[in-house]
Amino acid sequence: MKNIIFLLLISWLFFSCSATSPEDLVDDEPITASVTYNDDISPIVESQCLSCHNDNFMSGGNSYSSYVQFRDAVENGEVINRITRPVGDPEKMPQGGQLPDSSINLIIQWQADGYLEN
Ligand code: HEC
Asked: pLDDT tens track of the chain, all 118 residues?
């Protein structure tokens, strides 16, 4: 009887140690995914900019309805200049609002990665 209890104890210890630990659930893959227009940038532009910057209603003369239009505006510095202005600056974009830091960082990263489309 003692042996059985001992065996059960040993097997319990064995299984409890080999059970999935939180570390095992974390994906160890390095983050290699690049920021792309289709996956990351276009959703930001659509939700935050397009209402005022589309082909029919071009605030400041600018439409950001396509990859090329938005890429050119980031490339010439206008977009990053406007989205990184201090809160309360009348030229800050989106007008009357503010992008979350995570979105600003994505746009900066997208530029650094070379404006990948997809
Ligand atoms: C509520 C409307 C509105 C939204 C939303 C908006 N803008 Fe604007 N934007 C304007 C207006 C109006 C102007 C022109 C006045 C000015 O230059 O500040 C402008 C001008 C700009 C300019 C300057 C263009 C130039 O040639 O000088 C840039 C760059 C810009 N917006 C980028 C953005 C970006 C990027 C977003 C989204 C993150 C955005 N805007 C969202 C209304 C808006």
From this structure: 666 666 655 555 555 555 555 555 555 555 567 999 999 999 999 999 999 999 999 999 999 999 999 999 999 999 999 999 999 999 999 999 999 999 999 999 999 999 999 9
The residue nearest atom 26 of ligand 1, judged by CA position, is: 60
**Contact between 38 and 117 (Cβ < 8 Å):** yes
The Cα-based distances of 48 to 20, 51, 61, 67 in angstroms read 41, 7, 17, 15
Can you tell me the distance from the alpha carbon of 66 to that of 59, in angstroms, rounded to the nearest whole number?
15
Distances (CA, A) of 91 to 50, 80, 87, 109: 17, 12, 10, 22
Q: Which of 53, 69, 83, 91 to mutate to test the pocket of ligand 1 (most atoms within 8 A of CB)?
A: 53
How far apart, in whole angstroms, are the C-alpha atoms of residue 48 and residue 50? 6
